[in-house]
DNA sequence: CTTTATGCAAATGCTTTGCAGTGCC
DNA sequence: GGCACTGCAAAGCATTTGCATAAAG
């Protein structure tokens, strides 16, 4: 219960109601809903009876991301080159992983592959670069 | 010279000055500048003395993307979770490739790796999905 | 001629900011 | 009490759309 407060303090952030609530929402998100948009967090707050402004949700999530508490992703909505893409946030639970998004259901599956990770490092190196970060998203469709 | 007109007709688009000009700009982009934002294309047009509206640039690029003539990417600006990301367009020259973006210089290097491509397919399959598309961007830093 | 494209300006959607008021430590 | 945090409304960007005009086939 006081767990969240610790995390916040560690991040150098004052323990306030919006921050604690948002952290709880992210922590309690079911496996199927680990990737929330700012709007979804906002709605969850209202459903929980808390009156937090959308601006605050964005501010808090951005701070959390800067503190490494959460990760921000930018999944593109549809293929078809519709530049529409909103951010989704997910609690950073230690190890890194990539994502697979179903183009039909919107479902998100996480995965981690050592082979790919290593190849990426090698490829960057071959070009004289050091790999700092990467973003890999597979757009998939359920098999029939 | 009439090459562009053929490509446009093939795509089912009327041959108009804005479309031809934009196609030329993309084709003549140097190796270091193959990835242009709508704004950059717009500026290039003005520099070439053509008065094309930015809205038209967007419309044309979107049509080109839909026709498969160009590919639209969404490189994120800075890491640090600043959701800032604008689209860049690149001429689709046949084979698929991924990108490596230098976080300092903004330079973009293209690459293709059969191992990664294959692993992606396998990973999707293992989860009962069919791989439709993917987006892979490596964020790198020049080695010292 | 008829259809499709263009330009401009206004509208959008998501995200950030300015500022006065509020609540942590 | 002071300074960080919040809420609200307004500002910002990149991109899209409505509509009257202009050009293509």
TrEMBL record, chains A, B:
Metal-binding keyword on record: yes
Keyword list, A-Z: Cytoplasm, DNA-binding, Iron, Metal-binding, Repressor, Transcription, Transcription regulation, Zinc
Protein name: Ferric uptake regulation protein
Cofactors required: Zn(2+); Mn(2+); Fe(2+)
Family the UniProt entry places it in: Belongs to the Fur family.
Localisation per UniProt entry: Cytoplasm
Positions of Fe cation binding: 96, 98, 117, 134
One CC-aspect GO term: cytosol
Gene Ontology biological-process entries: negative regulation of DNA-templated transcription; negative regulation of siderophore biosynthetic process
GO molecular function terms listed in the Swiss-Prot or TrEMBL record: DNA-binding transcription factor activity; transcription cis-regulatory region binding; zinc ion binding
Self-association and partners: Homodimer.
Gene3D superfamilies xref list: 3.30.1490.190, Winged helix-like DNA-binding domain superfamily/Winged helix DNA-binding domain
Record-annotated membrane-spanning stretches: none
CDD domains in the record: Fur_like
Cofactor: record remark: Binds 1 zinc ion per subunit.
Keyword set includes RNA-binding: no
InterPro entries (alphabetical): FUR (IPR002481), Fur_C (IPR043135), WH-like_DNA-bd_sf (IPR036388), WH_DNA-bd_sf (IPR036390)
Chain residues that bind Zn(2+): 102
